[in-house]
Amino acid sequence: MIILPLKINNLSYKIDNTFILKNINILIKEKNITIIAGNNGSGKSTFLKALHGLIDVPYDKITWNNIQLSKIKKYQSMVFQTPLLLNRSVLENLKYVASKRNIYNLEYVINILKKLNIEQISDINAKYISGGEKQKVAIAMAIIGNPKIIFLDEPTSQLDPAYKNDIENIIKNLSISGVKIFMTSHDISQIKRIGSEIVFMDSGKIIYHNSVKKFIGENHKNFIKNYITFG
């Protein structure tokens, strides 16, 4: 199934009469890694959740290759900033997700553990592993069933440099394999390293959309210029 382009038509979203997303219109054709950036409170995490269908928006606001979001959601996965793991072993976490997707092949699950280099912690309860390991497990769970789209919300913001490097390499490899990646980040160095396209948000609006290369190279006004300099 071809899932791009992603088209968003005049999307707004509010909580208690406060708009979190405001009149978003965008067409995304980029096949590689799209970074959603902006300062805290800009709306980027809410935007990511809207794309994944975790918040209710009118059915005609978000379409993937002219297909409604409700029909695409089964091809999507999401990884949160704080991983959502069950109080059981790493292996059992993966087996649980696999079963929800009608996959009962243990070898398939073990191969995913090996792919992300976490088979050595497979028998450890997920609550006892490190933050970087938890994020790897969350990504392992997300790739079960071979989704076409993966959303990642600040997946490395709480990790040390070694684990950040590991996670970035996993994300790049997923993109190379054909998975469409949408990822929020406030780390300008990370954006330069792995991003192909950037959607920059402020106060619930998209104020810039282009390639990362152009984003870094252009002469911006103070707001974005400061973000690039100090982000």
What is the architecture of the domain at 6-82 and 148-230 at the second tier of CATH? 3-Layer(aba) Sandwich
Order of helices and strands: EEEHEEHEHHHEHEHEEHH
Return residue spans where pLDDT drops below 50 for at least 5 consecutive residues. none
Q: Number of helical segments?
A: 9
Largest sheet at a glance?
6 strands, mixed
**Overall strand count:** 10
Taking all Cα atoms into account, the compactness measure Rg is 18 Å
Distance between the first and last residues' Cα: 37 Å
| CATH top level assignment of the domain at 6-82 and 148-230 | Alpha Beta
Which class best fits the helix and strand makeup? alpha/beta
What is the third-level CATH name, the topology of the domain at 6-82 and 148-230?
Rossmann fold
Task: Report the mean per-residue pLDDT as an integer.
Answer: 95
The gross shape turns out to be globular
* Widest beta sheet: strand line-up: 6-7-8-3-9-10
Task: Indicate the proportion of strand residues.
Answer: 25-35%
Question: Could you please describe the fold and organization of this structure?
Answer:
By secondary structure, the protein is α/β, with parallel strands linked by helices. It has a domain at 6-82 and 148-230: P-loop containing nucleotide triphosphate hydrolases (Rossmann fold), CATH 3.40.50.300. Helix content is 37%, strand content 26%. It is built from nine helices and ten strands. It has helices spanning 44-52, 69-72, 90-100, 106-115, 131-143, 161-176, 188-194, 212-217, 222-230, and strands at residues 6-15, 18-28, 33-37, 62-64, 67-68, 76-79, 149-153, 180-185, 197-202, 205-211. A six-stranded mixed sheet has the order 6-7-8-3-9-10, with helices on both faces. A four-stranded antiparallel sheet has the order 2-1-4-5. A hairpin with a 2-residue loop joins strand 9 and strand 10 (205-211). Helix 3 packs across helix 4 and helix 3 (90-100) packs parallel to helix 5. The longest helix has 16 residues, at 161-176. It is globular. The model has no long low-confidence stretch (mean pLDDT 95).
